[in-house]
Each structure stands twice: as structure tokens, then as C-alpha cells.
Amino acid sequence: MTVNIKRLAQGQLSSSQATLYTAPNNAEAIINTIRCVNIHTSDITMNLYVRVTGNPARRIIPKNMTLKAGYLLVVDDEQNLEAGDRLQGDASVADVVDYIISGMEKS
To answer: HEC states along 11-79?
Structure first.
């Protein structure tokens, strides 16, 4: 068994629900922290979800959560993902919310 602690993904939220991270085949992952920063000059709304393979996406923050201009959101509730499970997200404006997802993968 190998455990790798690392940055799992980084990028910017799109304006439609999209996959931010997928647990690799033959592995499990634990998401420790999701950091989101609104780099826009206006407030935006955003959503984060976990989608377990074969099931609908489930919210992990309140629906259409407001993130004020220049503010940081830190989600530090651990999320356990099995192979193929995904973390997804969206924002009311594309490419203005930077995200970094940190955690570990076990294979």
C-alpha cells in the first residue's frame, strides 16, 4: 500500500457543473482541504459536490453559497472517495474562482 500526500487538483471553477478531481482507478482518496478564492471584483455564488460512482451528485456546501469579492472559502471536512468518485463544482461566473484541492491517494 502506498499513500501519497499531495495537491490533488487546481484550477478555476466553470459556470456549469464540472469535475474538479476524480479518484484514480485502483485507488482511494481523502480530500483534506478545498480552498476557493474569488478573484473577481464582484460577489459570486458557487457550489461544490461529491459524486459517488453510480449516484447523483451531493452538495458539500450550501446551495449557491455566496463568496464575496476577494474572499477565501476553506472546506476542511474530509471527503472519502473510492476509485472513480468525483469532486465537482460550479460558479455563477466562469474563471473567477481559483481552487486548490489537497489530500492523499492510497493505492
So the answer is: EECCCCCEEEEECCCCCEEEEEEEEEEECCCCCEEEEEEEECCCCCCEECCCCCEEECCCCEEEECCCE
pTM as predicted: 0.94
* Contact predicate 50/57, CB 8 Å: yes
3-state secondary structure of 95: coil
Q: Where are the domains of the chain?
A: 3-106
Largest CA distance in the chain: 46
Per-residue model confidence as pLDDT tens digits over 18-52: 999 999 998 999 999 999 999 999 999 999 999 99
Cell numbers describing residue 57: 451528485
Of 2.40.30.170, 2.40.30.10, 2.40.50.140, 2.60.120.260, the CATH number of 3-106 is 2.60.120.260
